[in-house]
Amino acid sequence: MPCHCCEITDNTFGEGDARSDIKHYRKHGPANQTRLILEGIRSLEFKDAALLEEEAARRGHTGRVQFVHADFTDVASELPIADIVTLDRVVCCYPDFRALLKAAAGRGRCALAMTYPRETWYMRLALSLLNFVQRLRMDPFRVFLHPVAEMESLLNVEGFERLSLRRLFVWEVALYRRSI
After folding, report:
1. Pairing state of beta strands 171-178 and 160-167?
2. CATH number, domain at 89?
3. H or E element that contains 24
4. Rounded to 5 degrees, what are φ and ψ at 19?
5. How many domains does the chain have?
6. Exposed (0-12), middle (13-18) or buried (19+): which is 111, by Cβ within 10 Å?
7. Taken in order 146, 90, 121, 157, is the CA torsion positive or negative?
8. pLDDT of 124-152, one tens digit each?
9. How far is CA 39 from the centre of its chain?
10. Taking a C-beta distance cutoff of 8 angstroms, is the pair 112, 163 a contact?
C-alpha cells in the first residue's frame, strides 16, 4: 500500500506552522533537541562540512541549497551523498522507520543524527491520545513511537555506530558515525 506521506504532512504542517517556527527560531534559537544535534555534529570536528538551516535565503545561501518536495524514501537514491544526514523530529512522523533509516544511512557518508520520541510510558500514553484525537478529527496524520533497539540495530547493520545519546523529557537525540 503506497504511503501518501507528503500529502498527509503538508496538511498537518502548513505555511502557518513554518512561519511560526521561523519566528520562534529567530527569537529563541534552535529547539533544545536541535541544539543537541548541532553540538553533536560540532563535536565530530569535520573539516569543510556545511550544515545549512531553514533561513538559507535570508542568509544568502539559496545558490547552495536544493529543496526537494517528495517522500525521501522515494527519491533518496537520486540525491547526492552528504557528509551528515539529520532527521530532527522526522522519524516519529514516518510510518516505515526501516525504509526511512535505510535511505538516510545510504545517503550519509560520515554521520547521522536523529531525534525521536522517548520510549517511555508517558510518551506511549501521550502519542496514543494524540493519535486518538487525530482519528476523531478524521485526520490521517499519525505520530509513531518506533522501537529504539530496532532502529539502532538497523543503523548498526548499515555501518553506523552510536557515539552519543542525550535524553530530554520528550525526545532522545542520537548521534551515529559511520564505522566502515
Report:
1. antiparallel
2. 3.40.50
3. helix 15-28
4. -60, -45
5. 1
6. buried
7. positive
8. 999 999 999 999 999 999 999 999 999 99
9. 16
10. no
Measured distance CA(113)–CA(149) in Å, rounded: 16
**Residue 145's Cα: distance from chain center in Å?**
13
| 112 bridge partner residues | 85, 176
Q: Which residues contact 43 (CB under 8 A, 6 or more apart)?
A: 164, 175
**Residue whose cell numbers read 542525550:** 166
With CA atoms as reference, report the closest residue to 65 among 78, 51, 77.
51
Q: How far is CA 95 from the centre of its chain?
A: 13
Q: Are 75 and 68 in contact (CB under 8 A)?
A: yes
How sure is the predictor about 67, in pLDDT bands with cuts at 50, 70 and 90? Answer: confident
What pTM does this model have?
0.84
**149 Cβ contact partners less than 8 Å away, ≥ 6 residues apart:** none
Domain that holds residue 83: 5-178
